[in-house]
Amino acid sequence: MTGSDRNGSIGSSYDAIVVGGGHNGLTTAAYLAKAGLKVIVLERRPILGGACVTEEVWPGARVSRCSYVVSMLQPKVIKELELERFGYRAYPLDPAYAAMTEDGPIFFFNQVERTVASIARHSPKDAAVYADFEDLLERTAEFLRPMMLREPPPLGSKSPGDIAGLLREGARIAGLSRRDANDLIRIFTMSVGDLLDDWFEHDGLKGSLASTGVVGVWAGPRTPGTAYNLLHHALGEIDGMGGAWGQVVGGMGAISAAIARSAEAAGATIVTDAEVVSVNVENGETTGVTLANGDEIKAPIVASGAHPRSTVLDLVGDTHFPDEVVTDMRRYRTRGGSVKVNLVLDEAPQYAGVSDEEQQLLLSAGVNICPSIDYLEASWQDALAGRPAAHPYIEAELPSTVDSSLTDDDRLVMTMFTQFGPSEEGQWKDGDRERYGETCINQLDRFAPNFKSSVAEHEVLAPPDLERIFGLQGGSIFHGEQGMNQMAFMRPTPDLAQYATPVGGLYLCGAGTHPGGGVTAASGHNAAQRILKDRRRARRPWRRRRASA
């Protein structure tokens, strides 16, 4: 069998196989192992983590190569899997980020009063309403957070348990005030640009906030539904502080490593360099998987953390699913415009025209360059026309300021999350990646004139690179677009939204399921709970008699 076994022994038969060693797959494995199942995780790459990974891209320099900051990792998972005992540590960022404007930075602190004071230097009018805007997001996020770790209710089901779930959610909605219900519907349906235009006047403030509304989505700030994406990124918390963001010691891969250690401590086997090429099915039931080297591993349960379309159409095959599921998966939208730029610096950026205090804040915060909503829309229109954005928006993080262990010397690691770039390889011409990376470097150099000369190494990962390296089809960092017609009980399709599938023993556990993308571990948690619930049901004699009647 190809691969390196982290536990020292590999069998050919298990209770459950998890396809993919991303953070969600590892979470599913950890919960199943804690419940007493014999579990194996199979990861095709030589390292664990999927898109939540730390890689030594250059000798002596380790970078969060895809995902880059933490906020949405679920506190329940952190506690139940004892992730802090297994090495997980995150430092809250305060301020979380700063919007760079021609008149100086706007800082977004964890304390709303400090943010208001920073905004007031640029727009007293916007400062006067910002606290109310934050309250809107937090009230709406509080309504949605309980749903993160729950299976979405299946519409149309006549099962008593499913009806009870629908009634529970219906009662929660009925409990909203008329004003709160109005706010919820507006955020679910509006463009982030229209939402922000209703509240604010300062272009730099609106541009910076709007960029969060299009993170990872194939849409621009004027696209209906992008206001929800702004809310989606407000659903997390660090140390009980809603909406806060943090840097992880050891990079984002340290999250995956801690989950893996928790799974192994519970008895799970984890294998790398083990590419699954097929999920085997007999008489409508999974029997295990086949690896690229021809080895077969048997198990009655297979949980796939791979992209849902890859799982259904490639690993399993469309002949094993009803026609409507196959049609839905072929229609499943999975495009992304995110371009990740990773860098090694010889020295820290020195920002011009700022105080010593502001300089220190900018080194620890995410530095956001997005001058206006129109600027962001123009970037999107470039990608929509099939070309890399001439003027991309940028969020630059310097994790070395809180974690010197990322390099073996005095160099610093920086990551830039940027948008937009086209999703198809054929739309990236010779030299486009180099030009795009240079544009991003020049953008930051405008505010920190030593920056360009400090860049020792850099790489540009366009959407096709994200697909090739991490399996993110179409470059979608969320395993599928997050329009409202691909969320909750419709993610990835109505027939697959409860993690189980029409193929017996086959489950989905990746970000292509509810509640969607981000480093949450929620999909992995929820899939494990569904698997364990189905196993409990299968042991009840009356259920078996009813099934055979």
How would you explain this protein's 3D organization?
It is built from 19 helices and 22 strands. It is α+β, with helices and mostly antiparallel strands. Among the domains are: 4-52 and 250-333 and 473-548, FAD/NAD(P)-binding domain; 128-239, no CATH class.
In short:
The protein is α+β, with helices and mostly antiparallel strands.
Structural descriptors:
about 550 residues, alpha+beta, FAD/NAD(P)-binding domain, seven-stranded mixed beta sheet, six-stranded mixed beta sheet, 22 strands
Q: Could you give the topology of this structure?
A:
Elements: E1 4-5, E2 16-19, H1 23-34, E3 39-42, E4 54-58, E5 61-64, H2 75-80, E6 90-92, E7 97-99, E8 106-108, H3 112-120, H4 124-144, H5 160-174, H6 178-189, H7 192-199, H8 203-213, H9 226-232, E9 237-238, E10 241-242, E11 246-248, H10 253-265, E12 269-272, E13 276-282, E14 285-291, E15 296-298, E16 301-304, H11 308-317, H12 323-331, E17 338-345, H13 356-364, E18 366-369, H14 373-384, E19 393-397, E20 412-419, H15 432-445, H16 451-454, E21 455-461, H17 463-470, E22 506-508, H18 522-538, H19 541-548
Parallel strand pairs: 2-3, 2-16, 3-12, 7-18, 16-22
Antiparallel strand pairs: 1-12, 4-5, 6-11, 7-8, 9-10, 13-14, 14-15, 17-20, 17-21, 18-19, 19-20
Helix pairs in contact: 1-10, 1-18, 3-4, 6-9, 7-8, 7-9, 8-9, 8-14
For CATH, the homologous superfamily of the domain at 4-52 and 250-333 and 473-548 is named as FAD/NAD(P)-binding domain
Which CATH architecture of the domain at 4-52 and 250-333 and 473-548?
A: 3-Layer(bba) Sandwich
Mean pLDDT: 92
For the record, the CATH class of the domain at 4-52 and 250-333 and 473-548 is Alpha Beta
**Radius of gyration from the CA trace?**
23 Å
Distance between the termini: 42 Å
Helix content: 25-40%
Number of discrete helical segments: 19
Structural class assignment = alpha+beta
How would you describe the shape?
A: globular
Tell me the strand percentage band. 15-25%
Give the strand tally: 22
- What profile does the largest beta sheet have? 7 strands, mixed
Strand order of the largest sheet: 8-7-18-19-20-17-21
CATH domain topology of the domain at 4-52 and 250-333 and 473-548: FAD/NAD(P)-binding domain
- Low confidence ranges: 1-8, 541-549
